[in-house]
Amino acid sequence: MLRQAMLGRARYTIPTKRFLSMQAPRQPSIGRFTGKPDHATGKYTVSFIEGDGIGPEISRSVKDIFQAASVPITWETCDVSPILVDGLTTIPDEAVKSINKNLVGLKGPLATPIGKGHRSLNLTLRKTFNLFANVRPAKSVRGFKTTYDNVDLVLIRENTEGEYSGIEHVVTPGVVQSIKLITRDASERVIRYAFEYAKAIGRPKVIVVHKSTIQRLSDGLFVNVAKELQKEKNFQNIELDTELIDNTVLNVVMNPSKYSDAVFVCPNLYGDILSDLNSGLSAGSLGLTPSANIGDKISIFEAVHGSAPDIAGQNKANPTALLLSSVMMLHHMGLNEYGDKIENAVLKTIAASSKNRTGDLGGTATTTSFTEAVIDNL
Ligand SMILES: NC(=O)C1=CN([C@@H]2O[C@H](COP(=O)(O)OP(=O)(O)OC[C@H]3O[C@@H](n4cnc5c(N)ncnc54)[C@H](O)[C@@H]3O)[C@@H](O)[C@H]2O)C=CC1
Ligand SMILES: O=C(O)CCC(=O)C(=O)O
User: Fold this and answer.
1) Where is the Isopropylmalate dehydrogenase-like domain (predicted)?
2) Which residue among 127, 136, 272 has the greatest number of ligand 2 atoms within 8 angstroms of its CB, and so is best to mutate?
């Protein structure tokens, strides 16, 4: 159900549906998929990184459901075991070639050793392929009761720098420094993407979440770039708000519906934390929230959650977040019919009965039984 609203000079389409659904959203003009299916088979090839911990279990679920739904995709499995070159973390050439060739990937969670060993492979992938925007929608799920039943939040996180730049050093024993790098170029490309995304999904407002009262230069630059961009003719009909992160966190917890007409955009770490909060509020679990890492040409889709080592190998993981990430991927590729079909089946399965739900949603289902129920509902 859509309603039209006249806002200023522009006509926007505002979705009234507040429950989880990413059905065939219009794609922003930046980062569009340009891959082509194979001539002989009519199928697209997608690079697949299964990931660590629960990764192989939830990846199996996605593969089984895609096969049952006859999605015209061939998976190309990629090994991203870390390789250290001159102290820098890289991934094997074959994986880089596969992703550069296919222009699209789906990945399970990758674990990062704490305080030693290789650098985060998640960050390495984002940097290697210049995936500058991380889109994280968080919506209530019909039939599954949480504190609020009308959460519909969209957050876009800067994905390549900020606190995740990896520039750290020991100044002197007992004194360390981590650099939060913010550049005009990276700020501009993610904020421009956020404006385009808001236009594409029919939201009239972009909110920059920051702390420029304290991080005056870095967050200050991020906010100023947003103000400059908003003056462009293309974006003048999108309202721009700026909010301090502590204020946003309080407001989201008190009344998430306040932000149902907005797209948040923020520097890397704020986006990481705020999006987990959004997941908790919308779903009561990390097991439901999908995401897209978008670059100019290449995009990689992944669940927001990590490798969940506490439940790995126990057939307890909820594959929904990876499944919904794969739905975002299908919409990105223009395979809307398949995306809608899988999304409907997943949501129907969760709504039907608590018996269908995995433990994180208070149910008793296993990864396998949930997958079978989704296949029955296709
Ligand atoms: N994008 C990625 O690949 C990410 C990777 N990580 C990595 O994951 C590892 C573990 O990180 P944590 O902080 O423990 O976060 P986590 O997201 O793996 O787990 C947090 C809690 O959520 C639960 N959970 C997560 N996903 C679930 C699912 N699909 N079904 C049911 N329950 C689920 C876990 O059991 C755990 O109790 C670390 O090595 C971290 O570096 C963390 C975040 C993102
Ligand atoms: O790579 C990691 O260990 C964590 C990355 C992360 O926090 C994220 O994907 O949001």
Assistant:
1) 45-374
2) 272
Q: Which of 217, 250, 283 is the last residue of a domain?
A: 283
Q: Please tell me the number of the ligand nearest to residue 324's CA.
A: 1
Q: Residue 367: which of 349, 344, 342 has the closest Cα?
A: 349
**126-164: string of b/e by CB count within 10 Å (b at 16+)?**
bbbbbbbbbbbbbbbbebbeeebeebbbbbbbbbbbbbb
Q: Which of 122, 289, 307 to mutate to test the pocket of ligand 2 (most atoms within 8 A of CB)?
A: 122
Distance 42 CA to ligand 2 centre (A): 35
CATH number for the domain spanning 181: value is: 3.40.718.10
Single-letter residue type at 13: T
CB 276 within 8 A of CB 134: no
Tell whether 208 and 177 lie within a shared domain.
yes
> Ligand 1, atom 28: nearest CA belongs to which residue?
287
Mean model confidence pLDDT for the chain: 91
What integer pLDDT is reported at residue 119 of this predicted model?
86
Q: Whose CA is nearest to atom 10 of ligand 2?
A: 272
Are residues 161 and 128 located together in one domain of the fold?
Answer: no
Q: In DSSP terms, which residues pair with 262 in a beta bridge? A: 205
- Paired residues of 88 in beta bridges: 85
Same domain? For 170 and 264 the reply is yes
Give the other-Cβ count within 10 Å of 38's Cβ: 11
For residues 345-369, average pLDDT: 93
Q: How many helices (H) and strands (E) does the chain have?
A: 10, 16
| 324-345 average pLDDT score | 97
Whether residues 279 and 296 fall in one domain: no
> Which residue range is the domain that position 324 belongs to?
25-136+285-377
Task: Establish if 18 belongs to a structural domain.
Answer: no
Q: How far is the CA of 137 from the centre of ligand 1 (A)?
A: 17
Residue 250 has pLDDT above 90, yes or no: yes
pTM of the model: 0.92
Residues 235 and 297 in one domain: no
Task: Give me the pLDDT at residue 10, please.
Answer: 36
pLDDT tens figures, 153-180: 999 999 999 999 888 899 999 999 999 9
